[in-house]
Design brief:
The chain is an alpha/beta fold. The chain has a single domain, classed as Ureohydrolase domain (Arginase, Chain A, 3-Layer(aba) Sandwich), CATH 3.40.800. It has 11 helices and 8 strands. An 8-stranded parallel beta sheet has the order 2-1-3-8-7-4-5-6, with helices on both faces. Helix 3 packs antiparallel against helix 4 and helix 4 packs across helix 5. The two termini are about 25 Å apart. About 45% of the residues are buried.
């Protein structure tokens, strides 16, 4: 069957098909405009565990989602395809996560980072291999003209994808929805930590700006960088809430956020940017955050502003049916607005 024949034969109002495809859609790789690249990786997680299994949980939960979208009712017709999970990456994640957790526990008991330099370097090398894998996968998919959404895993996973986009675009900004700034030089000695993803992306000269929204858990080192680097604009959660209490609407705040963005935008969505009642099993939940529709209204405003979303990621979704349900819905919104 051709893609159009599949569209004609498919009933988007019917029961979600258990066909192994994301949302039970009928499309194969070649027929799909949007490709989901799962990256089952959480080696450097420092609190809760399970987000490496988030992509699989989202895939399994996705067929129960209704495909109708009020703003983009035919978005499903573009075709969305979920790539196979890498067994090699899963094995490496399992091996090095155990080693990284041992290093973290030793530090918590008083061992210095310097005394663990050899062990930490092994973890850094493993994480760099993951980065290279993501870079190569992303380059291939982008070269084939696909729109790519990376699905982690922890928030360290999209660095290679952002580097691939930097080879295609001379300048772009990053819109980060998150509870954390992720601007540490390294965390617990790990250069490619989930807490360092935005610090690492700012090393790219093509990243002209970083707009952070919903940040509510931050260290002095990160705040100093925000104040120093003129590329960074941070809309802290507590400041947004205080403005709300004084009568400033979310719509007005969204307008200000969108105005701060450049023409080309990479959207990085850490699920813990939401209120933790929506993602209780994420790796590092933090009280506060956005309601689901608040976050979606921001994404919608970006998409309708005339600015171009050149790439997306969704990370830190927990391995739990409720978290996967919410994650599948966030992912679908990203597909529709991208």
């Amino acid at each position: 069957m051709t893609k159009q024949e599949k569209i004609d034969a498919y009933n988007p109002s019917g029961i979600g098909m258990d066909n192994g495809h994301i949302y039970g859609l009928p499309f194969e790789f070649e027929e799909s405009d949007i490709i989901i690249l799962p990256v089952p990786w959480e080696v450097t997680t420092s609190f809760g565990a399970g987000c490496s299994m988030g992509p699989k949980a989202i895939l399994e939960a996705s067929p129960q989602l209704d495909l109708f979208h009020f703003d983009r009712p035919e978005a499903w017709k573009q075709g969305i395809y979920f790539l196979e999970l890498s067994s090699e990456l899963q094995q490496l994640n399992k091996k090095y996560k155990i080693k990284a957790q041992e290093i973290i526990l030793l530090q918590e008991k008083g061992r210095s980072i310097a005394s663990l330099a050899k062990e930490i370097e092994e973890i850094n090398q493993a994480c760099d291999e993951m980065r290279k894998w993501v870079l190569e996968q992303s380059k291939v998919l982008l070269h084939r003209g696909k729109k790519l959404i990376l699905l982690g895993g922890d928030h360290s996973t999209p660095l290679g994808y952002i580097q691939a986009l930097a080879q295609q675009y001379s300048s772009f900004g990053i819109l980060q929805i998150d509870a954390h700034a992720d601007l540490r030089n390294s965390y617990e000695g790990f250069e490619f930590s989930h807490a360092s993803i935005m610090y690492n992306t700012l090393k790219l000269e093509q990243v002209s700006s970083l707009v952070q929204v919903g940040i509510r858990d931050i260290c002095e080192e990160e705040l100093a960088l925000i104040n120093k680097d003129k590329r960074i604009t941070c809309f802290f959660d507590h400041e947004l809430k205080r403005e709300n209490y004084k009568g400033i609407t979310w719509s007005e705040q969204v307008e200000k956020i969108v105005a701060s963005l450049p023409e080309y935008i990479y959207l990085s969505f850490d699920i813990d940017g939401l209120d933790p009642k929506l993602c209780p099993n994420t790796g590092t939940p933090v009280p506060g955050g956005f309601e689901f529709q608040q976050a979606i209204e921001l994404i919608k405003a970006v998409a309708e502003s005339g600015k171009k979303i050149i790439g997306c990621d969704l990370n830190e979704v927990g391995n739990d049916p409720w978290d996967a349900n919410v994650g599948a819905r966030v992912l679908y919104q990203l597909c529709c607005y991208m």
